[in-house]
Amino acid sequence: MNSNSEMVDYLVDVGALHSSDIIEAFRNVDRADFVHDRSVEDIYEDYPLGIGLGQTISQPRTVAMMLEMLSPKEGQKILDIGSGSGWTTALLAYIAGESGSVIGVERVAELVRFGRKNLEKYNFKNAKIMEASDELGVEGEKFDRILVSAAAEEFPHELKNQLKIGGKIVIPVQNSIYEMTKDENGELDGVEHYGFTFVPLIY
Q1: Which residues of the chain have pLDDT under 50?
Q2: How many domains, in total, are found in the chain?
Q3: CA distances from 33 to 24, 106, 147, 153, 197 (A)
Q4: Cβ-count burial of 197 within 10 angstroms (0-12 exposed, 13-18 middle, 19+ buried)?
Q5: What is the helix (H) or strand (E) element at residue 79, kind and residue range?
Q6: What is the per-residue pLDDT for 145?
Q7: CA–CA separation, 12 vs 165, rounded Å?
Q8: In the list 56, 102, 106, 138, which could disulfide-bond 48, CB 3.0-4.6 Å?
Q9: What's the pLDDT at 103?
């Protein structure tokens, strides 16, 4: 695959992308803007690429599947944990639109700078990337959607408190992705998707 458009067509063809707003975001946020070297030939191939410091920009199919699970909407307040290169933050910012907001959180200071630089290419007014604190997520805030792009050893329950009633979280735990919604009683209910590999979540 030699272009972002070809990559998106492929993701649609294999069934990883199917929502019109998410497809539009993928078409308008170019993966090449979130790698260190735009000249490498495999930018648009369907596998992770290293971005330094033992971290990766995730496999396009995995990102597509996780965003479809998350089902972000225009106007929502969204938290992106493990923002890395800033690609997922930018995709979410495109979907959330001017009436929504996205906070990317990244623990590695060098990647915070890298992600911010990449995000600036799109001049989003509704998105920012912060360096992670000792607390997971953003303490004292509540979100409509939470995306986590690194694998926890066990589900971090502190994130449940940062999710609004009716809100949704998508998070890898070990080798599965959990897709869960917070019900009116404040409990999480959802499904487990097996067979994924992520860098570890550190906090």
Answers
A1: none
A2: 1
A3: 16, 18, 21, 31, 24
A4: exposed
A5: strand 77-81
A6: 98
A7: 31
A8: 56
A9: 97
In a domain, 199, yes or no: no
Percent residues over pLDDT 70 in the chain: 98
Question: Phi/psi at 19 (nearest 5 deg)?
Answer: -85, 130
Token couple for 114: 């890298």
Give the pair of three-digit tokens for residue 130. 């912060």
Active site residues: 58
User: Does residue 200 lie within any of the structural domains?
Assistant: no
Q: Find the angle CA(107)-CA(146)-CA(51) to the nearest 5 degrees.
A: 40
Residue 41: the pLDDT is: 79
| Pairing state between β 143-148 and 163-173 | parallel
φ, ψ for residue 41, nearest 5 deg: -80, -15
SS3 21: helix
pLDDT at 203: 62
Query: Given this model, what pLDDT does residue 48 score?
Result: 87
Look up the CATH number of the domain holding residue 170.
3.40.50.150
Q: HSE on the CB side for 9, CA within 13 Å? A: 6
Question: Which residue range(s) make up the domain with 110?
Answer: 4-194
Q: Are 78 and 144 in contact (CB under 8 A)?
A: yes
DSSP assignment of 150-183 equals SBBSS--GGGGGGEEEEEEEEEEETTEEEEEEE-
The DSSP call for residue 200 is: B
